[in-house]
Amino acid sequence: MQTPPSLQPGDKIAIIATARKISQQELQPAFEMFRKWGFDPVYGRNLFRDDHQFAGSDTERLEDLQWALDDENITAIICARGGYGTVRIIDQIDFSKFQLNPKWIIGYSDVTVLHSHIHKQIDIETIHAIMPINFPKDGSENEALSSLKKVLNNENIHYTLNTHPLNRKGNAEGILVGGNLSILYSLIGTASDIDTDGKILFLEDLDEYLYHIDRMMMNLKRSGKLANLAGLIVGGMSDMNDNTVPYGKTAEEIISAMVAAYSYPVCYQFPAGHQIDNRALILGRNITLNVGETVEVQFVNANEKPKGIFGTLKKSYGFILTITAFFVFIYALIKLINYLLG
Length: 342
Description:
By secondary structure, the chain is an alpha/beta fold. The protein has helices at 24-36, 58-70, 96-100, 112-121, 143-152, 181-187, 210-222, 251-258, 308-341, and strands at 12-16, 40-43, 74-79, 104-107, 126-128, 158-162, 170-180, 200-206, 231-238, 266-267, 281-283, 286-291, 294-299.
């Protein structure tokens, strides 16, 4: 996948809302933090519009996203908050200029629609990370913010975590995909449905009934999303709900049972999702996942060559192209000499 350029001092970050509405007061801490980091935050024209739950009509939200994608002066786009609404505009977006001029798209929750669609259709990396609605109100810089800043500055990203009783040990390497479980479930069978074969899947969710977690995981299993994974990272399963008659399992236990038949490494309670400690993840990036006495997640730097068989194949392919070009040149040179001497 393509990696958007890292940000430089003075670069413009567009703040837009593709889903739920937000106020300027709620955005002030993020605006000030981006200025503190040396960037120039700019608001979408329709950002503070109000259409019941939404940040303006579908047309207005689409207009802001399209502007941010097309404007060559914008180097990153961050969605102000999640909620619901991105799926209502995804099929009307023209990504042609974005493909020619990639830029970071940042967010989580409902923004999983954008992550998934871009990975399926366009092959450009995106960032699953904290959004402006969650920036600390006191202006402090927590782990979630520090990790986002590192990604934007193209610094190495490496997480070391404590183990979890349900973890399944093992090592894996692959492209990281995923996001919010409810959104991924809703996108199955659409143009935004991600391919998980050979990938490391990340899942998180909020405020769902436990039986619905089971239903969604069963759907992923039956649709072939779980069988051929390289690995699984389960983030925050926050504020789960239960019925009067208890379901009998936690969200993590439900997921563990769903993937019990497979052998790839699995880790639980990774610090990402609907929680204060929401570490930045580069979706579409090659990562290594090592689950043992601790959990190690390492993102391959954008400047590094891919490792493993994929990297070997890329090197071999480049070598073959070079040798082929050399012999074509020699053949043409011989033909030219024979022509001149003949």
